Amino acid sequence: MSADPSGRSEAEDAASQEPPEGEPDARFTFANERTFLAWNRTALALIVAGLAIVQLLPPFTGVPAGRHMLAVPLIVFGALVSIGSFVEWGRNQRALRRGEPLPRSPLPRVLSITVAVLAFVAVVVVLLSAVLE
């Protein structure tokens, strides 16, 4: 291996360079965009569900903050899913341009766990309301 005037070897130069980027097949770009839009529909549904809980659900007897305990996490999580979907879209687009495998997304796991936790909280609020009625 030869070294250039800066003292770096060819292997070091090759390792420090970003992979070349090219234009990916439009089908993959559109699929990535559809996935991004689907995540944003999910985020919007979470936000709307939170707003509907606060505005349309009658107060829980004995649990005055029950509606807010359910609604606020949904609204906040909807905002986080929207931001996360943009980050995922960018990561996927970079991988497509570089010809690399797509990175694994944490969004499905986080969404599943969050919805399950909120369902558990909803059950507790409903049961507490029934007991305290």
Task: Indicate the topology.
Layout: H1 10-16, H2 26-56, H3 66-98, H4 107-132
Helix pairs in contact: 2-3, 3-4
Features of the shown structure:
elongated, 4 helices, 133 residues, 0% strand
Q: Can you characterise this structure?
A:
With 133 residues, the chain is an all-alpha fold. The protein has one domain (24-132). 73% of the residues lie in helices and 0% in strands. It has 4 helices and no strands. It has helices spanning 10-16, 26-56, 66-98, 107-132. The longest helix is centred in the middle third of the chain and has 33 residues, at 66-98. The termini are far apart. The model has no long low-confidence stretch (mean pLDDT 89).
What's the short story on this structure?
The chain is built from 4 helices and no strands.
Characterize the main sheet.
none
Number of domains: 1
Total strands: the figure is: 0
The helix count comes to 4
Strand and helix order: HHHH
Q: Shape from CA axes?
A: elongated
Mean pLDDT: 89
Distance between the termini: 81 Å
- Secondary-structure-based class equals mainly alpha
Any low-confidence stretches, pLDDT <50, length ≥5?
Answer: none
Rounded to the nearest angstrom, the radius of gyration is 23 Å
